């Protein structure tokens, strides 16, 4: 805002000669350079006096549309017009206008090139607001550009409007200084969301992806359409995910979860371990339903985005459709089933089976004694199954133990079905798989649990993506902190041994701790040399004896325990044999790069041949960080001095004009490029507006919390055991229904994709064509089938 100079005031005679009139009070003959300048002056005057301001009219010229005259009035000017709805309104709004005549009129002076006050009335016919309440007046409330940025950042960070408003108020010294009220805060957020969804949910989602690609060309996404050209499945991965998968994509877990978005779509993530054994994300997806076709498209898209690099091992849950898709797409990967889910199914299916002899004894001896025997037998069967899953490393021992356990249950049950896929979960069959120590999808489920702290079921599709970014950033910040600590904190080497000193410099801290523990175990081992060459039998404490074959010329030590082949860290048995062969340093071929401090070294290229850069805006961010710190410190120092503040504002105004002029020249130099792509943007906007997201059928709302299987089991136990003679079918009917997918824990829910004959993918995999509707049976349906022929039909060789 600029005020008139002394010469302008002196032209008006005696009206401007009185020094008692403050400079912020309007006077006849005052001159302003622009209408906006005059409006700012009138608003400021209203704030000091205590009334609201309003623009009565602006008269533009018919020739050049220049404003020739205008009038600014009090907010209470005039009277409210008669409303035809008055008789139908029970509680009409309170009257505001009082016919106040206070006003300031301006007329253009074309010769001088300014506007002059030609009409001025300062008397009001109503009570003025106090200075303490003036900030509530609409004309005194305005959200500045920087405040709007902070409001939107707080919303994207998951901070509620109430907390964000309070934080902003405290930062400036109170709500009266902030410049807007809480209602304005909420209105701005509503406008922001409407602006973001201007193309609809599907179009706004595509616009979000296009903006990401513009920021970083390595960002990749893919969508799949049905024959009605509605978006069904969505996959995306950013530059950091591409880099992480290139370095740590040897073992992948994939799992889906529900209740993270308003569209009720299953949300899935591909995750793995980094060198600090922390969770890293390789990609994410939103599916329409969990069918074979959907998973097949997803896995093919995932491989295409990651340059067709297959993982060595992939873990999933027991979903049949997912398992079939894994076997058909990840041809070079070992498929493992989540042992946690299998154990939950074991608790569910094995704990309710008893021998017929025990049932007969219960009838004779009484219900109470029978229940005690059941409690004694149940953990015995589960312990046997747990041993088969985790302990037995010899296949013959596993078969014998499983047959013994199977003999305790006389009917064909879930146990027979899970035996068909024993190669995917039993320890003895997974000994030769590279797993990094993972045996389940708990890594994915742990991430899903963390994501639910940021993702809620009422989020629209665009807010879902932004809050997913928050959750991912939390993981990445933790990774950066681990990287900092690994470079700042020295590892604690317990023995001054060359191999340990070497390992402390090479391995990441957590991997070094594991290696040092193996080294300590090697010292406590017992060694027996066998007759042939460098073959040794190594025994540690009460553990099983392991056979190690050494080769001093090639500096190798192959152990029968297979720990290095599974985890990538040399076992105590092999370390002992290396020491016996006088090899005091760890050979290079026993140091996996993925476990080292330099695991991320190297350049990664995307599928287009470009070098993947995690943050192309890094230099700009650093410059902004430096300037922001300087300006904040300067503002803090000069704020107590009014003279310094005035000088700083004057300097900033002058510099702002100069900088804006230079930036305008930069934009003009890029104008030709913008013109060449204008038609493309217009066509893209039309495409965004035409995009449609396939909707899922809404579920009936309930106020009750959704119980998981364990909660329901606990609830059933409180109700007591079922009556004698009650069949398993009747028991099953009493089980509560689940809102859960087909993972083998809850009852099944079959999903279909209607009219999926010509699904197409716009970005990654080209077009896919499926000719049949596919209904995926749940694993629970499979494993609870009581008829032998049904089990044999479902558990065929190509089951997964």
Task: Tell me what the structure shows.
There is one protein chain. The protein is of the alpha+beta class. Mean pLDDT is about 80; it is low at about 1-20, about 370-380, about 670-685 and about 720-800. It has 29 helices and 17 strands. The radius of gyration is 36 Å and the shape is elongated. It starts with 5 loop residues before the first helix and ends in a 6-residue tail after the last helix. Strands 12-11-8-9-10-7-6-17 form an eight-stranded mixed β-sheet, with helices on both faces. It has a five-stranded antiparallel β-sheet with strand order 1-5-4-3-2, covered by helices on one side. The chain has a four-stranded antiparallel β-sheet with strand order 13-14-15-16. Among the domains are: about 5-80 and about 95-140, no CATH class; about 145-195; about 500-595, no CATH class; about 710-760 and about 770-780, no CATH class.
Note the topology:
Blueprint: H1 6-10, E1 31-32, H2 35-49, E2 53-60, E3 67-74, E4 103-109, E5 114-121, H3 145-156, H4 161-172, H5 175-178, H6 182-196, H7 200-215, E6 220-225, E7 231-237, H8 239-248, E8 251-257, E9 267-273, E10 279-286, H9 292-305, E11 313-316, H10 320-329, E12 334-337, H11 339-350, H12 356-365, H13 367-390, H14 395-406, H15 414-419, H16 442-451, H17 461-488, H18 498-506, H19 509-523, E13 525-529, E14 535-540, E15 546-551, E16 556-559, H20 563-567, H21 572-580, H22 618-638, H23 642-669, H24 671-676, H25 678-690, H26 709-719, H27 728-734, E17 760-761, H28 779-783, H29 788-794
Parallel strand pairs: 8-11, 11-12
Antiparallel strand pairs: 1-5, 2-3, 3-4, 4-5, 6-7, 6-17, 7-10, 8-9, 9-10, 13-14, 14-15, 15-16
Helix pairs in contact: 3-4, 3-6, 7-25, 9-10, 11-13, 12-13, 13-14, 18-19, 19-21
Biased composition (Basic and acidic residues): 1-11
GO molecular function: zinc ion binding
Domain SWIM-type: 536-582
